[in-house]
Amino acid sequence: MPLNICVYCSSSTRVEPAFGEVADEVGMRLAQAGHTLVYGGGSTGLMGRVARGVHAHGGHVIGVIPESMKSVEIAYLDSDELIETKTMRERKHEMDERADAFLILPGGFGTLEELSEVITHRYLKFHDKPIVILNPDGFYDHLLGLFEHFIETGMAKDVYREMYRVTDSVEVALDSLSLC
């Protein structure tokens, strides 16, 4: 069944080429599976590569970008829908509302914040949408270790482990989102 998959990832143009290749594959596979991309609306970095990958394979792209970020992130004007919001909070809300599932690719502080929020919201039962962390080349290994540290020290409950899945395979990630 086709889903609206919200992808959180880096907009940086300084990422390692291997991560760009992963973004290209995500875009291709999303489109081939008939899924719609919901994302931050940028044309640079991994964000832009996923969006262009979706379009290159005939898929549908919904970008959501704050008005103030439109020039900073160089909006992907070829989006099938480009939704402008007033604030970052409105952006995340719009993306969350449109999403059936969340796929997290490598990213920086913004991606970390988005990931933390969707995991926390799932734990608090604000949504029950699947979350998959794509971990190519062990990109998120240190963060996942920190998550385990939270649990081991009692700062978070064991059940947090059930809020998300982790894989280094794009194919497994998309299959996991479709099966949840």
Would you mind describing this structure in some detail?
With 180 residues, the protein is an alpha/beta fold. It has a single domain, classed as 3-Layer(aba) Sandwich (Rossmann fold), CATH 3.40.50. The protein is built from six helices and seven strands, in the order βαβαββαβαβαβα. It has helices at residues 17-32, 45-56, 88-98, 109-123, 141-152, 170-179, and strands at residues 4-8, 36-39, 60-66, 81-85, 101-104, 131-134, 165-167. It has a seven-stranded parallel beta sheet with strand order 4-3-2-1-5-6-7, with helices on both faces. Strand 5 (101-104), helix 4 (109-123) and strand 6 (131-134) form a beta-alpha-beta unit. The longest helix is centred in the N-terminal third of the chain and has 16 residues, at 17-32. The mean pLDDT is 96. GO terms for molecular function: AMP nucleosidase activity. InterPro entries: LOG, LOG_fam. Keywords: Cytokinin biosynthesis, Hydrolase. It catalyses: AMP + H2O = D-ribose 5-phosphate + adenine. Belongs to the LOG family.
- Sheet-strand content, in percent, reads 15-25%
Q: Structurally, how many domains make up the residues? A: 1
The main pleated sheet reads as: 7 strands, parallel
Gyration radius, rounded:
15 Å
CATH architecture: 3-Layer(aba) Sandwich
Q: Low-confidence parts lasting 5 or more residues at pLDDT below 50?
A: none
The coarse overall form would be globular
Helix/sheet category: alpha/beta
Multimeric state:
single chain
Task: Give average pLDDT, whole number.
Answer: 96
Distance between the termini: 11 Å
- How many DSSP helices? 6
Q: Quote the CATH topology.
A: Rossmann fold
Order of helices and strands: EHEHEEHEHEHEH
CATH class reads Alpha Beta
Number of DSSP-assigned strands: 7
Strand order of the largest sheet: 4-3-2-1-5-6-7
- Helical content class: 40-55%
